[in-house]
Amino acid sequence: MSLSFNRNQEEFEADIQLGEYESSEPIELSEMAVSMLENEVNSGEEKEGDRIKLHYNRDGEAILTSTQYVGVVSLRDGPTIEVRPKAAGTNLLYLLQYAHDTTATTFESQAPYQAGHTFLDAFGALYEAELRRIVDRGLYTDYRRTDATESHLRGRLDIHRQLQRQPPVPTAFECTYDELTHDILANRAILHATTVLLGAVSDRSITQSLRQHQQLLRRQVSLTPVTIQDIERIELNRLADHYEDILRLTKLVIRNSFVSELQAGSSAAFAMLVNMNTIFENAVERACKEVLSEREDWEVKFQDTSQNLITGGKHTVTLQPDITIYDPENTVSLVADAKWKNERPKNADFYQMTSYMLANNVPGILFYPDCGGLNESRSTVTGGFPLWLSELPTAVQVNSYEDFVSAFESETADAIFGMVD
């Protein structure tokens, strides 16, 4: 599958380019484009509100407003829209890699992500590096139950099919047998995701590498649509541990993309929009886990629920901070939330965090991406509990992935241990 992007240009240019939470100029949108936006791009259970908001001015012209979802949308009979994250600088690929805990160590020299490239170029570079690692180690094979007509008896004879399809003196046999094959669900999911990314990545070197992998896969694997429900039921044995990273990325592609048709030709409509809140939250959770691993008997829990805020009465309030840190006595020591925002905190951020803090009688941290110091703050909640707003260095100038990880985890450690020591 490929889109009608001009790959002869040095850099992909969408019809409409937006940062997060920006609005377009008024435009004309066809009914077909509006239908795709409302019923496909903004549909689905796993989303936080509309991915791209649509409203109209007094003249009936459409205005599109981006949210925390970044990526590319090519509307059917409409414009191509690109939404870029602001707070990651040139470190978007590093942030993606860290958030999804992938081990792609070969991409830096062969598929660098530079400023100005699209979000999906960054993701495509990471995916290509993981796919290359899988191909180099060899595609996973497994046994698949096969029903086939054979010239010689193979496996078990299917008596019912044999009587239905073959004459009294048969020249062929209706057989059922288990066959070792590469054409299994895990590899089909990877081929599906590779094909989807080919429609969105604009960098020519990444596109070329992905296409080579796609062609290799198609020699041994069927190109069929794969759903997120299919991905969830994939079970691999320990011999396929090297598939874990790429299947995490594959799940991200399939969960967040829409294509009008999945084939090697062209597609008139495409969308892949990824929630940066989720990316950042995953990165912060991983950093907290790494930092706390250095403290014996300390524990960090993610999305831990409690009902401590109010007591008595007929109603309960369930609280679920992103991060809850327990000390060696198994007592809550700190609560934290991750907020991917490049603007000043909203009142709702404070209401939510102070509820977590008062319910547990502990300090709290609100983690934000790099906003140039706009959100850095230290304050005190009534009752004497400190509340820190900490910006993590998502846009710091670094020379390598290792430098990025070191800076990210160091700032996380400073924030946590500034509270619990």
Automatic annotation (TrEMBL):
Pfam families attached here? McrBC
Entry's InterPro entries? Answer: McrC
Protein's name according to its UniProt entry: McrBC 5-methylcytosine restriction system component-like protein
